[in-house]
Amino acid sequence: MRKIKWGVLGTAGIAKGCTIPGMQQAENCELYAIAGRDMAKAQAFKDEFGFAVAYDSYEALLEDKEVEAIYIPLPNTLHHEWTIKALQHKKHVLCEKPIAENAGQAKEMYEAADANGVILMEAFAYQHSPYIAALKAEVDSGIIGDVRYMDSAFLTSDYDLSNIRMRKDTLGGCTYDLGVYCTSLIQRILDEEPKDIKAVASFSPEGVDVLTSVIMEYADGKKATFNCGMLLATNQDKRIDRFEIHGTKGCIKSNIFEFNLEGNLGYTVETFDGRKEVKTVETPQNYRLEVEQLGRCITDGEAKGVSTDFSMMNARTIDRILTSIHY
């Protein structure tokens, strides 16, 4: 199995706590280069995780011809700029969600990937989970009939103002940080773009949305709702993750579930004829799965697990929600 030489553009918390540990597990990944604005921090990452080289600038990493693929965990405001720069250096890119500030920027990024003959994929790690695949298979099997309503929620603690999630200048707020999970889960299950969207939000004094509620209506009359928020106990890493899918013959509800959780996850299927079954799915580390999947796209021509069309549809939906809440 050929290993892809990866570079990580930045020393963000998501990289340290989630993605780089997943990269260490990935069978087709070589942790080759790390770059940071602070050389001491980049060197610390190199020493901790076993990168071959460390750089004190993003530009220097991009110039390294050994690097084949780049992971970008930078703040949302920097995704567009640095993804396009990496693509122009003929690097494949895995860019953290949300892929861009808006759908227009996302379109430019995918066009740059095509123009340079490389792959760009949005880093929705949980979308690679066998748990999500199992949910989709249940719905597609018709066991709960035609879907009439889906609901989801993702709420977390809030944070102090040093956290980029709480600042508007870094495109913080719960819709960008958490709502994208709900919209992408609903989109994965329903597989279509909403016809109408209505949303309301509560804002912090700094102007970021800390609680957003959304109604999505579809062409055939079905509806989906979700709530996202950053308002639980401050800096306590508390969270609420859930979903329900209701159809004409029954429903599916989350049991043991968190976005990006690994281990034995569960959901319950109940049908109107009285059947009830609790099912479990063994789920590996999601960030490992996305890195391995993009690696196979590069070496074997496998189709992206998070497609361009999927990400563009999700970006358009987020744009409409943000417009609705006047963000």
Task: Produce a short descriptive summary.
This protein has 327 residues and is α/β, with parallel strands linked by helices.
Q: What is the helical fraction, as a range of percent?
A: 25-40%
Mean of all residue-level pLDDT scores: 97
Shape: globular
Structural class: alpha/beta
Description:
This protein is α/β, with parallel strands linked by helices and 327 residues long. The chain has helices at residues 13-25, 39-49, 58-63, 79-88, 103-116, 130-141, 174-190, 286-300, 308-324; strands at 4-9, 29-35, 53-55, 69-72, 92-96, 120-123, 147-157, 196-203, 209-217, 223-232, 239-247, 250-254, 263-271, 276-283. It has an eight-stranded mixed beta sheet with strand order 8-9-10-7-11-12-13-14, with helices on one face. A six-stranded parallel beta sheet has the order 3-2-1-4-5-6, with helices on both faces. Helix 1 crosses helix 8 (286-300). The longest helix has 17 residues, at 174-190. It is globular. The protein starts with a strand and ends with a helix. The relative contact order is 0.16.
Question: What labels would you give this structure?
Answer:
327 residues, alpha/beta, 8-stranded mixed sheet, 9 helices
